[in-house]
Amino acid sequence: MFTGIVQSQAEVISINIIDDRCRLVISGDKSLITSLTLGASIAINGVCLTVVEYTEFTESKAKIAFDVIDETLKVTNLGKLGLHSLVNVERSLKIGDEIGGHMVSGHVHCQATLVEQKLTDTNCALYFQCNKKWMKYILAKGFITVNGTSLTVGEVLDNQFSVHLIPETLTRTNLSLLTITDNVNLEFDQQTITIVSTIERMKLDTFNH
Question: What's the whole-number mean pLDDT along residues 26-49?
Answer without folding.
Answer: 96
